Amino acid sequence: MVWAGIMIGGRTDLHFFDTGSVTAQRYRDEVLELYVCLLRGAVGPDFIFMDDNAPCHRAVLIDDFLEMENIHRKSWSVNSLDLNPIEHVWDMLGRQIAALSHPPSSVTELKRASSPRSLELFEPKTHSSSQSKHGKSLCSVIGYQR
């Protein structure tokens, strides 16, 4: 599984869950603590947090952590592309990787194919895909699994 966060004018690095299932504890330890708390601190009070309905995102452990960190979830339709801009990013990245002469067949190859240099190809589009009427501090946090 791969996780990423986007916001107006930027994005996180891709985070790969190399082995095992993504449990609520792993999601908290590897994503919320390492990325989301930092992004919230950088953005300030206008921070908007969005995730999908994956079971690891909806665990009591996660609800308690978000409450403790004063991070408020925005309830948006996860199926609406307009309200879920990271789906555009996953689509762009998927197309970019599929267009490679030798598409990756392992996690190691996928990491190499989605290196920071290759991700620069869709960075300008990330900015426009996260523009919405919901303000300039959108952070969309969705896991993607193929």
Automatic annotation (TrEMBL):
<dbReference type="InterPro" id="IPR036397">
    <property type="entry name" value="RNaseH_sf"/>
</dbReference>
<protein>
    <submittedName>
        <fullName>Transposable element Tcb2 transposase</fullName>
    </submittedName>
</protein>
<dbReference type="GO" id="GO:0003676">
    <property type="term" value="F:nucleic acid binding"/>
</dbReference>
